[in-house]
Specification:
The protein has 236 residues and is α/β, with parallel strands linked by helices. The chain has two domains: 171 residues, Rossmann fold; 52 residues. Helix content is 47%, strand content 21%. It is built from ten helices and seven strands. The chain has a seven-stranded mixed sheet with strand order 3-2-1-4-5-7-6, sandwiched between helices. α4 runs parallel beside α6 and α9 packs antiparallel against α10. The radius of gyration is 19 Å and the shape is elongated.
């Protein structure tokens, strides 16, 4: 049977460009490697997870789809289950941005030996971009995927060097403004909404931390609205 993927995971599959092997770190049910092998996008996958229970579910799905010879499950933390160069593409999706940077940093040789990293942090995306910039990686693509009212950020990186000059590139995505992704306006609106919530919760507070956060959020909202205005004017 054909594996149906969510828009978020479908967007990740689009960034496989001729590679033969992949590792899905934090694979959960193993949907992504199963779909990639089924569609013959890759020929060998490693479905990896730190917890036995989801890995058992992944094993069942892999077996039910007759893919035991193509997909190997591995139990363990992060990239420690891999050997350097064993997977051309390493995917880390659906986990926090801080955890992603910690896992990359704990196995720098394995991360650096991969041809490509595809990262989908659930939060702290600016932290991930800054880590890549300062640890020998270059962001080559960014993508957005929408499920319900949530926008997911997908970061594709390779070993290399880069320099981010605009602070908004940390926040919105590397060169997101230049590429004008169809979901960029919705992405900006979501960030404005979250910052407005911060303003509401800190408005009138007298502590230095609250005052600083309020001013920073106000300034960020102003900058985001300026970007959105530029996007709208460029469409006309």
């Amino acid at each position: 049977m054909s594996m149906e993927l969510s828009p978020r995971l479908m967007a990740i599959t689009a960034w496989f460009t001729g590679e033969d092997t992949m590792a899905d770190i934090g694979t959960d049910h193993g949907y992504l490697p199963v779909a990639l092998v089924e569609k013959k996008i890759i020929s060998k996958a490693f479905a990896c997870d730190i917890n036995e229970k989801p890995l058992e579910k992944a094993r069942k799905i892999i077996k039910d789809n007759g893919l035991n010879k193509c997909i190997e499950t591995r139990l363990g933390s992060g990239l420690s289950v891999l050997q350097p160069g064993e997977a051309e593409v390493i995917v880390m999706a659906g986990m926090g941005g801080l955890l992603i940077t910690e896992l990359l940093d704990s196995e720098v040789l394995i991360a650096g030996a991969a041809k490509k990293l595809i990262l989908q942090p659930m939060n702290n995306q600016p932290v991930v971009r800054r880590y890549l910039e300062t640890h020998g990686f270059k962001i080559i693509h960014e993508d957005l995927a929408q499920e319900s009212n949530r926008i997911y950020e997908i970061i594709v990186a390779t070993p290399g060097t880069m320099m981010i000059n605009d602070c908004l590139d940390y926040q919105l995505g590397y060169q997101a403004i230049q590429t004008k992704h169809p979901l960029l306006k919705a992405h900006i609106n979501r960030k404005i909404y979250l910052e407005e919530n911060i303003c509401d919760s800190t408005r009138g507070k007298t502590t230095l931390i609250a005052k600083k956060q309020f001013e920073e959020s106000k300034a960020y909202i102003l900058r985001l609205n300026e970007v959105k205005k530029c996007l709208l004017s460029s469409v006309k």
